[in-house]
Amino acid sequence: MTSTGRVTLPIEQGMDEQLPGILARLGADAVRNSDGTWLPEITPQLGVKVYETYFPARGNQEFALAHLDARPRFYLMSARVAAGAEGALEIDIMRGYLPLQVTPDFTDLYRWWEVIDRTTGDVVDVEGWSVSGEGTDTVVTIAAPAPFHVYTVNFLAWQVWDSTQMYNYTTNNWQEDPTRVREIGYDARHPQAWEFMQQSLRDWCVERPEVDVVRFTTFFYHFTLVFNDLAKEKFVDWFGYSASVSPRAMDAFEVEYGYALRAEDFIDAGYYNSPFRSPSRHYRDWVDFQSRFVSSRVRTLVDIVHDAGKEAMMFLGDNWMGTEPYGQYFGDIGMDAVVGSVGSGATCRMISDIPGVKYSEGRFLPYFFPDVFTDGGDPLGEANESWLCARRAIARKPLDRIGYGGYLSLAVKFPDFVARVEEICDEFRAIHDLGGGLRPENAPIRVAIVNAWGSLRTWQTHMVAHALWYKQIYSYLGVIESLSGLPFDVEWMSFDDVRAGSLDGVDVVLNVGAANTAFSGGDEWLDADLTSALRRHVALGGGLIGIGEPTAVPANGAFFQLSDVFGVDKEIGWSQSTNRYPVAHGEHFITADLRDRVDVGEGAGDIFGIDGAELLQLDGTSVDVAAHTAGAGRAVYVAGLPYNADNTRLLHRAIYWAAGREQEFSSHWTSTNVDVEVAVFPATRKALVMNNSTRAASTVVAGRSSGMLGDGDVVVHRLELDAMESRWLDI
């Protein structure tokens, strides 16, 4: 063990004899409970910092049952149902939903519900439909539907069971345990609920003198997580605000903004304002409105915690809506720390880069739950995968602390796993000890990612449910994952930022994503001011990298509106009569380190080159990778970029080439083996070399003796690294 500290472990009752030894072995200096466990009586005697989870919006069933009108709500959409040739149409609005989680809210329903003809988009007049039944038997009857048109019902529903607790119960098979209560939440906008939340926290702080850190898990509104009638996840959006609605909130919104919101503003035709959708003005206003409200009330809770002499920590998960960590109000909350689940390098940076807190902590995977810690599970493999992704991100922007969650009694049954966690803890502390707790030196290339969300979604793009894999996003999320461990300063800009001139000082711009998504941009690219700003950037010597379907919207004879800059466009079936004769280009700086063909994932398909482009990889006649010079600048196109070592090196080189600085690449501390990456800490005259693969690696590492950007001699190190090994070099 190189040092101790910087590690938080979950503990639980029934392990008193084991706990001191486990904490000492892992060098842990803090402990916590988890949802469903309680701190043991021995906790104050352990001599460590104590976190305890706290749920402001749930946990007191007596209050919840006495104030059912304070329950939080969802906006939900029924199944799409087609009318017949004649007669009324009945829609069972609860079909496909789980009654244990949601039930219709009939409060002033003809004001807050909507019936929509999805064939035309027209709203059916309230006089044209009626409601009968209740709960699971609720039926909406449309008296005179248009024959063979499709209809849906947008309805407000009570949240009967907290979404996170339901997830934990189903994962751990607690549903039938009579000692466990299915908790009902309460909405902070409800006056009595808000008073109860404040007083409960004051009382709790007095009753918990042993607790040093109140770990808010989290605050008021859960991200959108809806289960189907089989208790499986039906809809999940880690960024969704559909569960933050209430008549009281919408009335307050109308007073402040001067216009009324309707159900469809939240339902969004069933897309529920997914972050892949370009956000509407109404949705942007709602996010801002709720963020101001939540931040102001969270500040009150934080002040209560501080008055009790404790620290306030926010878990970036569960009920985090409205506490946007990269929003303009987060800094006003006064939070001491943030903790979040680290499922990748991107999610690690999402946590470690949050401004305005004293320290950040990453909760590593696997979670100590029986879905992994069981016969046939692979906790050791998951631990290695999690660490290899996180380590390269931690090396670029160190987390202050790491930890785990779940049930320690499960984890200790797997000694190989515990031994590996011990190694990971030591390796993490070494980054602080030998790197001085500082950020390593970055290349002198400023990179900007441009999309509809801008800085609000810093390190959060192309995600559905945190770091989970989805088929249609891995080709784009891989770009963010690669960047999380590359030596560049990265910032997120909106299209409005670009129009306002924020590209000044930016070296390379990235536009990444599928057509018609918020990340590629869709109709934004019909704006001549936007396309002109990017053309100007490249013409004056800047770089542009497009991945997937960048700047894509069919208009004016092109699909990629900056096809002239990229040197490629996409055939969408309209210009097949035009003959094209693609010829693969030879060796190029961008592809120099490839061990095999570039993996473009799902790819974009049917990409063709324009005169002057260097086609670096072809898939039949479709272009996978291209490079193009435009004016004094350069552009690179890649059809997709899932995360792997080869693709990360390709992106690393592409950024240097697009910036026109490829001659500096070899002196900026690089490795000849793409599985190996280097982070340089000039202040401590150290370099961290990391083998990111599960096999041994031979490599030559070279860079300047004075650091990445210095003018010292180039020094060379020949290394043999074990699988997953990291090694510190004196520079």
TrEMBL record:
Signal peptide feature range: none
Lacto-N-biose phosphorylase C-terminal domain segment(s): 669-729
Keyword Mitochondrion: no
GO BP terms: carbohydrate metabolic process
Organism annotation: Tessaracoccus antarcticus
Domain Lacto-N-biose phosphorylase central: 446-663
Alphabetized GO MF terms: 1,3-beta-galactosyl-N-acetylhexosamine phosphorylase activity; 1,4-alpha-oligoglucan phosphorylase activity
Pfam families: Lact_bio_phlase (PF09508), LBP_C (PF17386), LBP_M (PF17385)
E.C. designation(s): 2.4.1.211
Keyword terms, alphabetized: Glycosyltransferase, Transferase
Boundaries of every Lacto-N-biose phosphorylase-like N-terminal TIM barrel domain copy: 5-439
Protein known as: 1,3-beta-galactosyl-N-acetylhexosamine phosphorylase
Coiled-coil region: none
Presence of keyword Glycosyltransferase: yes
